[in-house]
Write the structure tokens for this entry.
Amino acid sequence: MSKMKSTTPCNMTGLVLTAGGARGAYQAGVLKRVSEIPAFAGKPSPFKIITGASAGAINGATIAANSGNFLEGAKLLTKLWGNLDASHVFRFDSLSLAQTGAQAALDFAFGGLFGAGRLKSFLDAEPLRHLLESSLDLAGIDQSIKAGHLYAIGVTTTGYHSGKAFTFVQGQLGHALWNKSRRVALRTHLSIDHILASAAIPLVFPPVALKTGDSVAYFGDGAMRLTTPLSPAIRLGAERLFAIGVRCQESADSLLRSELATHDDYVTQLQRPPLSQICGTLMNAIFLDHLDADLDHLKRMNNFVSAYQELEKKIPDQQHLVMPEPMRIVTPMVISPSADIAIIAKTLEHRMPRSIRYLMDGLGQPDAQSADLMSFLLFDSAFTRELIQLGYHDAGLRIDEIEHFLFENM
């Protein structure tokens, strides 16, 4: 175990918010229920470190900016998601879609003759910028840091040039920075552009330009290359992690069983997946599949560190055991949906704007459990309120466990 000293305060709890497009409303419901624990009434957030990507960056920034009053921050977050409409996120009027279609036609049909690169994305996300500018006061982050309610917030994006995961960190002096093979951390003062870049779903929304030192580069959704979503919070110094996922594990296991079924299971042959289902699986690979794998990795590392600490006690001369980086046991707690969000989205697909639904229907109709693409893009209050209620319910079922976790060692 390394003997390097750290300026990071001890016993810090980190909040890790994963990606998921419209599924991010589930996280708002969980945080709302947690904020209603009586001990938090009018009190600061228990999360000194907050990290997030994509929708998790929006949610994390909202909580960070209101760290001085956790309950009010969670209320603001549920209000944001509960009143959401597709028109607040992207343009889907006939003129906008016609312009996109014309650019795509020119690029794909005549790009070899007249040049390509006109199409930046399939949807215009300018409304999302206006929504965040009117709803999110990022000045509160600096105030929370100065007041000592927040140690650091990290917002992760993906660099379209290097392909690396960039975590932009705003925090107290002395917070960790890193430059690894696939991950980079930069100190910055977070802006709406950082949040937009983290939430820029590839192909769907356009890249966002951000300053990186003296240069400007283009970034997209932070979940694309963030294969270890727990890592930024751990590197920033969190010793306990409260993570909120957006995928129902029971549903994932059910889909796996259908693929591994035998004749004795009386399962009919699975049908060839339509393009919409393939796109949904691609989105899952980007947004949903990393948290469980990273949690397994963390548990293995905890076992390794525990064994190492026992070895330290038994060997007097430890010079040959010193590791290049300090290591510690990090205690996790994860909340994930108890119901399949894809099925909820399927029942509400009629709420999708007609023009967008028409285009998505052209990709084919997946079965209900595989309607993942719809669940990422269904920015509608009927859907998001269902997810808020689901998150609120799931957190309520484990509220004693959550309270014990958050207050242990405080």
Summary: The mean pLDDT is 84. The CA atoms of residues 168 and 299 lie 26 Å apart. The first helix runs from residue 25 to 35. The two ends are 25 Å apart (CA to CA).
